[in-house]
């Protein structure tokens, strides 16, 4: 019901003015920082004996390098799934309704749990779309991000009554 203007569109990202979206962003920032620490830890564990001057593909094609890639990919996928599960519904919910971020996270987790197949397919669509959009020097993101945002909004509107 708001007029179409940049102020109204960009103002929606502030939410309801109660700092819930900002708090959610802070939580995601801290969680992402832990993700980086885990990635560095995995690299350090597997590549401790690799040597400093050895850079390039041969480093990752060694036994330790392949093991690091497997463990890192599994750990990264699990962490990405957790991020997806807590944000896929909670972020649009915080923009749309006057809720606290804990309730929004609980609703998002419950939605993913009750619609596992559909939400997993949607996560795969997001991942593949973002990967393909990054191939042309990240320029595809100019098209893909708004489309995914719009589609996620419609997913949220259908799932949350």
Count of DSSP H/I helices: 8
Mean pLDDT across all amino acids: 90
Please tally the β strands and state the result. 0
Distance between the termini: 19 Å
Report the β-strand fraction as a percent range: under 5%
Order of helix and strand elements from N to C terminus: HHHHHHHH
Write down the Rg.
19 Å
Largest sheet: none
- In quaternary terms, these chains amount to single chain
**Poorly predicted sequence stretches spanning 5 or more consecutive residues:** none
Descriptive overview:
With 161 residues, this protein is an all-alpha fold. It has helices at 6-11, 20-47, 57-60, 63-87, 90-96, 101-114, 116-134, 141-159.
Key features?
161 residues, mainly alpha, 76% helix, elongated
Brief digest:
This protein is mostly helical.
Helix and strand arrangement:
Elements: H1 6-11, H2 20-47, H3 57-60, H4 63-87, H5 90-96, H6 101-114, H7 116-134, H8 141-159
Helix pairs in contact: 2-4, 5-6, 6-7, 7-8
């Amino acid at each position: 019901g708001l007029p179409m203007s940049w102020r109204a569109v960009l103002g929606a990202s502030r939410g309801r003015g109660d700092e819930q979206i900002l708090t959610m962003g802070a939580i995601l920032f801290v969680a992402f920082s832990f993700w980086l620490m885990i990635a560095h830890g995995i690299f350090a564990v597997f590549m401790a004996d690799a040597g400093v001057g050895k850079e390039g593909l041969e480093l990752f094609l060694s036994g330790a390098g392949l093991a690091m890639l497997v463990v890192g990919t599994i750990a990264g996928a699990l962490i990405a799934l957790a991020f997806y599960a807590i944000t896929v519904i909670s972020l649009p919910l915080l923009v749309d309704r006057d809720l606290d971020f804990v309730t929004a996270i609980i609703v998002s987790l419950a939605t993913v749990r009750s619609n596992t197949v559909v939400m997993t397919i949607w996560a795969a669509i997001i991942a593949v779309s973002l990967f393909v959009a990054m191939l042309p020097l990240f320029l595809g993101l100019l098209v893909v991000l708004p489309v995914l945002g719009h589609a996620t909004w419609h997913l949220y509107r259908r799932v949350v009554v």
